[in-house]
Every structure is written in structure tokens, then in C-alpha cells.
Amino acid sequence: MHLNLTTTGDGARHVALVHGLGADGATWKPIVDRFVATGSYTVTTLDLRGHGESDRASSYRLDEFADDVASALPRGLHGVVGHSLGGSVLVRAVERLQPRTAVYLDPGFSLALPTTGLAGRLFWAVPTVTMGVAALAQARKGARLRAGYDDATRASSDQARARFDSGMATGVFRDVAFHPVATTAPAVPSVIVLSDDSPAVVPERLVSGYQQAGWQIRRLPGVHHDMQLEAPDRTFALLAELL
Q1: DSSP-derived secondary structure for 170-227
Q2: Residue 6 confidence (pLDDT)
Q3: Sign of the dihedral through C-alpha 109, 107, 215, 65
Q4: β-bridge mates for residue 8, sequence order
Q5: How far apart are CA 78 and CA 54, in angstroms?
Q6: How many C-beta atoms surround the C-beta of residue 149 within 10 A?
Q7: How far is the C-alpha of 203 from the C-alpha of 121, rounded, in Å?
Q8: What is the maximal distance between C-alpha atoms in the chain?
Q9: For all residues of the chain together, what is the average pLDDT?
Q10: Beta-ladder partners of 216
Q11: Mean pLDDT of 49-67
């Protein structure tokens, strides 16, 4: 699997950014620009399989995404950041990558979707229908938030969505829902950054468990899931503090 990588800047601190479902490396531009402007960072972004300019695949399991990332990125970076799906991929690759710090922005560590009992059986019997209903509500909310993005950010997001192999979505959601990240000690020093939307991907019942296991928890109140697009200044300021 060939992943498309882009490296920008020549600072001493090398960080990598792993995007979420339906995005690509280019959508990190607001954050990349801020890192590079400091003169202190080199930043590598990548396109996950089935996204952007990376290869399409016949299978899109979380472990396969993680194997790709572990093979593509250098070992021992100063920091690696994963957003949403990128967080659920990074946590499965981080022990092999061994960055000094891993930061997870609203990571897909779990999902607020039923997986057991009658509700779970009914939901996953026809996931294209049940998830489609949920997606419509999310799309309406997303459209309101996107209206606040600048033109370049909005265009980048649209381009990423157009290149995305959308057939993976149901399988990815199922994989995340049925394989939540255990509340055990992190493999490297790690921070979870939560937005107002975080209960959808990191249910509050798990947050205290991660914290007790040694994960640092930080919150960005007043922002939503795509925090790096909605509030790039606040998101960058926190990342610069953590990395």
C-alpha cells in the first residue's frame, strides 16, 4: 500500500498529522501553516488508504490502516497527531512509531452506537439505513459549521470528500464500534483532546478510565469535532503547547 506523504518546513521538531474519515493530508493546511510559520517545525501529512492521492484498497480495516501508517512514517518523531479516524489508526500504530508524544483530537476510540442486545442487532442489520438517518442530522449540523470556514478550508474539505472512497464508511464505523480502545496505559506519553462533540467518539464513561490509566485529558470547549478546521488558532496553540 502506497500512501501519499507531504513534508513541509525545515524546523528541528518533526511532527506528523493523521487525518480523519473523508479528509486527507491537505485538509491539515491551517495547522501546517501555523506550525511552519514558527520556524521550529517540520510537518509531515499523509493520505490514508482510500483517501486523497493514496491507493484504493479492497479492504479498510483499522489494523490495515495502522500497518500502512507504521510503515510510512519515520520512527521516533517529536510528535504525532491523529484526528477522529486518524486517532483510532494512530493508537494502533503508535507503539511501532514511538513518537515522543501522541496527541489524539476527538479520536475514534469508541462510538455512541449500539453493539449488543436487540438494539445492536437491529442497528447493524441494515447499517446503511440506520447510519444514513444519523448522517443526515450530522450533515445539517456540519453545513452550519462549514459556513464559518474560510473559502480555502471549505474548498479543501470538498476536494478531499470528492476523492474519498466512501464505500469504506460503514465498515470503518463497524470496526470502531466493535473494537473500542481499551482503557489501559498508553504506549507513549499521550494526550486526548476533547471537543463539545466528543461523546460521540469517546463516551464520557470511558474518559475517566483513560485518565486513571495515564492518559492526559484536555478539552477545547465551544468547538466541535473538526476542531482543526473550525478553530485552527486554538487547536494549534494547544498542539504547540503539547508538542
Answers
A1: HHHHHHHHHSPPPSS--SSSEEEEE-TTGGGTS-HHHHHHHHHTT-EEEE-TT--S-H
A2: 98
A3: positive
A4: 43
A5: 24
A6: 17
A7: 21
A8: 55
A9: 90
A10: 191
A11: 96
Q: List, for residues 166-196, the tens digit of each pLDDT value.
A: 889 888 988 988 899 999 999 999 999 999 9
pLDDT of 110: 87
**Pick the residue with more confidence: 121 or 90?**
90
Q: Exposed (0-12), middle (13-18) or buried (19+): which is 102, by Cβ within 10 Å?
A: buried
Instruction: Give phi and psi for 19, each to the nearest 5.
Output: -80, 175
- Phi then psi dihedrals of residue 9, to 5 deg: 90, 170
Per residue in 25-39, pLDDT tens? Answer: 999 999 999 999 999
Whether residue 125 is predicted with pLDDT greater than 70 in this model: the reply is no
Amino acid sitting at position 226 = D
Determine what percent of the chain falls in helix, strand and coil, rounding each to the nearest 5: 50, 15, 35
| 88: its cell numbers | 483510532
CA 191 to chain CA mean position, Å: 13
